[in-house]
Every structure is written in structure tokens, then in C-alpha cells.
């Protein structure tokens, strides 16, 4: 039963956050600082999520095949490869490192 209470509270919290966002005056949203934060915040959150999923395992840091796949994806991005090539490189390198040991 506790799980359903948590799900209900989370859904209500998400709805409330969305509603509060709609109540923000347009003048606030036009400020340069707010626009810059709105541009940079999703990138920072995605980078943090990627780092946590790649290098985290519970309460410890790990360096395994996921890190090699991330490095391959970063290299493909530096070389300006298309998105599917970036994802494919990460998958192939991760699978190859896992297969080797």
C-alpha cells in the first residue's frame, strides 16, 4: 500500500509543479538569467545522470565497460558523427569490452 501512496504523492507533486510553472509571469521568464538557466539546466542534468549511470554502482564508483562505451561515444561526438553512429559506437565498444572480460 505504501508504494501506491508514494506513486499518488509523486503524481500530485508533478502536477503541482507543472501548475506552478504555468502561473509564473511572462516578465520573469524573459529575464536573461532565467533564459540562460533554462538553456543550460537540462544539459547539466543529463550530464549528471549519464555520469551517475556510467560510474555509479550503489554506494561506490566503478570503472567498467560502460566507461569505455561512454569514451567511444564522446570520441564519436568530437568527430561530429551522426547520433546513430554515436549510439552504435557506444554499444559496440561496451559489448566488446564485456565480451573480452
Please outline the helices and strands.
Layout: H1 2-23, H2 26-29, H3 32-55, E1 56-57, E2 60-61, H4 65-78, H5 83-100
Antiparallel strand pairs: 1-2
Concise structural overview:
The protein is mostly helical and 101 residues long. It has 5 helices and 2 strands, in the order αααββαα. Strand 1 (56-57) and strand 2 (60-61) form a beta hairpin.
Low-pLDDT sequence parts: none
How much strand?
Answer: under 5%
Number of helices: 5
- Average residue-wise pLDDT: 94
**Largest sheet, strands/sense/barrel:** 2 strands, antiparallel
Q: What is the structural class?
A: mainly alpha
What is the helical fraction, as a range of percent? over 70%
Which key phrases capture this entry?
101 residues, mainly alpha, two-stranded antiparallel sheet, 5 helices
